[in-house]
Design brief:
Layout lengths: L1 E6 L9 E10 L3 E10 L5 E7 L6 E7 L8 E4 L3 E5 L4 E3 L8 E4 H18 L3 H18 L5 E7 L5 E3 L4 E4 L2
Antiparallel strand pairs: 1-2, 2-3, 3-4, 5-10, 5-12, 6-9, 6-11, 7-8, 7-10
Helix pairs in contact: 1-2
């Protein structure tokens, strides 16, 4: 892993930004590069992943049907749109989007964190109730009681869900 410390932060300007680059060979996906930056002064962070070879735009569909499915490896680039229509939630690509390597359980955890924030920070009882209900649904998915479909669309092709159950199509 290459690391460069003491760089100026694009947010606070202090020279406490650390840049990291790491090569990783991911089975069934290939060689990729992980990039990250984090500031020790203001807690700014950004991460992304990029495949070493150019890939075609892809639409990835994965159905969570039991507890074992939570272990499927997820590779998500910052250019990817992640949709879970049953939760009416998505992670949009763009400037504030993060790339990461995790698993399905970790991906669901990111959605849980958003819902917990909504539940804990709102005074609107309707929003709080909706967040609580969606958190219960995610919990039931994690217990293997409720199926859930995850869709990732990535115009750069730098995303994947590593599983025999994954359906991959060309993104239109």
């Amino acid at each position: 892993m290459d690391e460069l410390k003491g760089q100026p932060c694009p947010i606070c300007g202090k020279k406490e930004l650390t840049l990291r680059e790491e090569e990783r060979d991911i089975p069934y996906f290939g060689l990729c590069f992980l990039f990250s930056m984090s500031c020790g002064a203001c807690d700014f962070s950004k991460a992304d992943i990029e495949a070493s070879e150019k890939k075609d735009p892809v639409k990835i569909t994965f159905n969570i049907e039991d507890v074992k499915d939570l272990n499927a490896r997820v590779i998500k680039s910052s250019n990817a749109l992640v949709k879970i229509s049953q939760l009416k939630m998505s992670m949009e690509p763009g400037e504030n989007s993060e790339g990461f390597i995790s698993n399905i359980e970790g991906l669901l955890g990111k959605f849980e964190n958003v819902l917990k924030g909504q539940r804990d920070s709102t005074d609107d009882p309707t929003i709080r109730k909706k967040a609580k209900n969606l958190l219960k649904k995610i919990w039931k998915v994690k217990c293997g009681d409720v199926p859930l479909k995850v869709v990732i669309e990535d115009k750069t092709g730098n995303s994947a869900i590593i599983s025999d159950k994954t359906k991959m199509d060309k993104l239109k």
